[in-house]
């Protein structure tokens, strides 16, 4: 399989610490900072450079010369593609994530002791959604993952992060494609999702607008949709729906409510831990009478917390949020628009709940919060760096009442955080 050509000489360095993003950081003799995958604190490694710019180097360790006692053998051969933190013990992963979160917020005067870090013991087979690519060779068609730091792919049969039902469905679909002698060149990717009862739905993205209906696809999972996806786009865009087999909607019960969604919905991949966070949000906002949920997805958080309004821009999420609101029986206003164009909805509200994308809050949203000063802001974040930026922007009007980290994504470097702010 193709891989990125080597253009720089290898480097050797000692890793000082893990940083937000997941790499190990160390310094070279010329003072440059190197951010190295597959490297743990205290290790001395030989690393191959994947990117270089002024004063900063990105690399992947190819040999560990001095091994950390925290290092373990990864469960997956392709661990670098999906979960590069498989190389450390479970105890070390949670400790390092808490330390990274504490380090990120130290500039706001929050000490490590102030930050609770929550995880459960399900470090494997927790993901309810996975995406796989394809690779073809003389032996036939295979599932594959992109290799970190290159444009190459690595053949796989599944992932230790995925619920077993997901990999079973993916391999059933693969077998149907093999039987039909489908070439890898006409395929883009497959996304499979399952509910907590193990029902699976899938989306198959193809590059051929005349992709045929394949016998047997209807037997691979609960429901599957085949999409033509523009081959000129690297993303799995749904350019045109070709056909569907079965029922593509899933439903899970979260915080006492039945929540429906599909393979494309903005919905958490680790439901047991997400349910803990939803319960926490519901408790901290319970005493406040008027609430709004911004960036609301299919409405999970807002419905559970008793929000009077939900704001969401994605049409597919709106489709399922409408069903979920009706099923819950509440009088909830559903606003189909971006949060930054729906600022009037914040006016007169006591509690504002936000779960924004990695980019964090739009500057117009921050300005509106400072202008309206609701009594409480509850902020669930998938990016501690933009969370820190936004909390700094809301100070000193708002004080941090509590800050909690969550390990929603075991064996990966991703960290979720929940901040509860109160008006000073």
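-> sequence recovered:
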């Amino acid at each position: 399989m193709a891989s990125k050509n080597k253009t720089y000489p290898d480097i050797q360095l000692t890793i000082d610490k893990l940083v937000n993003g997941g790499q190990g950081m160390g310094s070279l003799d010329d003072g440059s900072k190197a951010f190295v995958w597959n490297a743990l604190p205290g290790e001395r490694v030989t690393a191959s450079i994947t990117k270089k710019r002024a004063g900063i180097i990105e690399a992947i360790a190819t040999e560990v010369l001095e091994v950390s006692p925290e290092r373990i053998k990864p469960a997956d051969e392709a661990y670098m593609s999906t979960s590069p933190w498989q190389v450390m013990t479970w105890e070390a992963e949670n400790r390092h994530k808490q330390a990274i979160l504490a380090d990120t917020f130290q500039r706001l005067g929050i000490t490590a002791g102030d930050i609770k870090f929550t995880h459960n013991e399900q470090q494997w087979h927790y993901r309810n959604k996975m995406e796989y690519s394809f690779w073809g060779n003389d032996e036939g068609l295979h599932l594959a993952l992109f290799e970190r730091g290159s444009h190459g792919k690595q053949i796989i049969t599944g992932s230790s992060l995925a619920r077993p039902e997901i990999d079973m469905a993916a391999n059933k679909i693969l077998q149907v494609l093999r039987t039909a002698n489908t070439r890898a060149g006409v395929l883009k990717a497959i996304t499979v999702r399952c509910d907590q009862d193990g029902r699976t739905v899938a989306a198959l993205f193809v590059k051929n607008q005349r992709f045929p209906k394949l016998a047997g696809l209807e037997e691979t999972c609960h429901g599957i949709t085949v999409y033509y996806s523009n081959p000129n786009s690297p993303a799995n865009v749904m350019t045109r729906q070709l056909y569907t087999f079965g029922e593509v909607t899933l439903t899970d019960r979260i915080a006492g409510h039945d929540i429906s969604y599909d393979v494309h919905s903005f919905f958490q991949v680790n439901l047991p831990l997400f349910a803990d966070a939803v319960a926490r949000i519901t408790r901290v906002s319970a005493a406040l009478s008027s609430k709004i949920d911004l960036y609301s997805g299919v409405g999970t958080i807002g419905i559970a917390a008793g929000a009077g309004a939900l704001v969401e821009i994605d049409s597919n999420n709106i489709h399922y949020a409408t069903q979920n609101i009706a099923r819950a029986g509440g009088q909830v206003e559903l606003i189909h628009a971006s949060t930054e164009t729906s600022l009037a909805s914040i006016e007169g509200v006591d509690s504002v709940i936000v779960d924004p994308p990695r980019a964090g809050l739009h500057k117009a949203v921050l300005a509106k919060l400072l202008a309206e000063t609701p009594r409480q802001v509850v902020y669930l974040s998938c990016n501690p760096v933009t969370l820190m930026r936004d909390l700094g922007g809301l100070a000193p009007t708002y004080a941090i009442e509590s800050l909690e980290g969550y390990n929603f994504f075991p064996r990966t470097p991703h960290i979720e955080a929940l901040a509860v702010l109160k008006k000073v």
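The first strand starts at residue 11 and ends at 14.
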